[in-house]
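Explain my protein.
***
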Amino acid sequence: MSYGKMIHRAALGAAVCAALLQAPLFPAAVSAAETPQQEITDTTGTPDAAAAETPAVIDHSAEYKPVVNEFLKEGEGQPASETVPKTAPKYTGADREAEKELLKLNKQYAKEKAAARKARAAAEKEKAEVREKKQASRATFDLTLDVNNYKQQTMQVNGSAVTFRAYEGLPYAAKPYAPEYQKLNLYVPDAYFHGGSVNGYTAETAPIFLPNEVGGYMPGDAATPSETSRHGGANAVLRALSRGYVVAAPAIRGRTLQDANGYYVGKAPALIVDYKAAVRYVRFLRDKDLLHAGDTDRIIASGTSAGGALAALLGATGNSRDYEGYLKDIGAAKERDDIFAVQAYCPITNLDNADMAYEWMFNGIPMVNGSTLTEQQKKASAKLKESFATYLNDLNLKDEKGNVLNVAADGTGLFKEYIEGKYIEAAQTALDNGTSLGSPAWLTVSGGKVIFMDTVKYANAVKRLKSVPAFDSFDLSSGENSEFGDAETDRRHFTWYSLVESGELNLPDPETEKAEDEKAALAWRLAEGKPQERLALRKARIEKEKKQEALPTFQHVATPQVIHMMNPMYYIGTPDARTAPYWRIRHGVLDRDTALAIPAILALKLENEGSQVDFKAVWGYGHDGDYDLDQLFDWVDASIQDKVQKDAEAEAAEEAAKEAGHDRQAKDDIPVASQKGI
């Protein structure tokens, strides 16, 4: 079991060994209703209800011997053989008392656990009610649009004027927790209000660009058009407008936001809930004919870093019911939230498995920012690297040729070759474009061709940026730890491994716990037919479980459901979610904020599930985005044309099928004699 999956053992494995042995560990301990109710009244040696659950040990040391039938007459056949069943040993009075006590113990413990669960649920409900009362006074907004309340603006893109209407500060949630963020800016090319077209698009066909400005899972402001950007020239919003796109740019809550009562209102899954609400709002406006232009079947999300992760999450989780309660809570419009395409630059995603991927790449690099890793961190790095193989192999990812991309415990394998290929491809593209590669020790170039890449030398050259673990820090110091807090807790773990290693709850090492569970399961099986021994084992187990259940785990680690909702990998290819059909994913060759393995896993999963994916590493860039906007919008245009062509082909095939059906029906209606030409 990989450490990325151990978070799902949130109840600390009350019956782990049962699953390991594929047999019940302890009899009927789930609830009193499932516990046998028969009274033990037999005193003649016949097994009662309890004995039926724990039968006596049968002595198989000697073979059963055949008994010759002496009554057969000569010639009547061969002597028959029978087996004489052995008599099961009778239980002692002490055994019977132990059986009774075991049944009683299981019933009582089931009642205690049910009562404890009820008490915890009541306490959580009470806290939630108190919080809701304090937040009940939050403002309510009307999700409409005054079409006449706009500013007309004109800006320059490459010497050409771009005129558009700006509707800014529009609330996309009727009951927002942070009104200053839960709003968006809407920009529409002016040509669409006069029956014109831009770049071949009309008011009905124009794509809708949905960029977010989130970074580090912090609050993200709503983007605005600008003639300048950090990479020179117009920014993404203005470029999109110049290409004929409608732009809906939402502001989004983040991990540091607090309301007037001191409650955190931007912890997970607030960011993705807001992004979905923005999509629903745009569809709402278009359906109500309040938005003059834009094709809501052509929505494209875009973001960088945590914003790239957010774009990926939006694209993977379209219409999933997991988010409905949160969307209803903020008063989101009752619309779809699936989208057409995703541009994700260096997405900081798959967080509950990202630590393993990071150590798979950077294990063995002993320094970070001038500081030497501690012995605990070095040990953790090795363990996380080893666990990555288990996680990756369980995914059963395949390349375009159908090869399973696996990883061995030492980090080698076809997946490693796939990653090396992405770096080689990036270097070759740069070389073909006339870019000097310098003399990186980790690349081998011969005759103008990049022929080899050494991942160990690469890691030593670029060096690790983050400590161990890179995301779920033992001391809760990472931004991601803050992202997984809750309304009253700023920081929590989101992997079981880091929670254990942190020492916050003095939890046993997972491997030690697994070994102890296996030992306990074996002892239980060996005690079959020995009620007194099983009673002692059950008492010991219950005592251990009570100590575990008393730990305030929920205060230190995020719930599995929230972790699930923040990872697109759990939704791609599932019937509960509609995944975007087109994806463009970019990761800088010099990016050390997350390992290239993470976007690669995302891309491969999408491809394996049928999405069209353009995934590349990019030479000369680190953790960055929006550096190739012309290529981005060229890709969007090409994706739209691809979808148009596929739809046309599908429609033609459907018409042909209908026509063939009509022909068959017409033929069936002609008399047989006529069909034969008679």
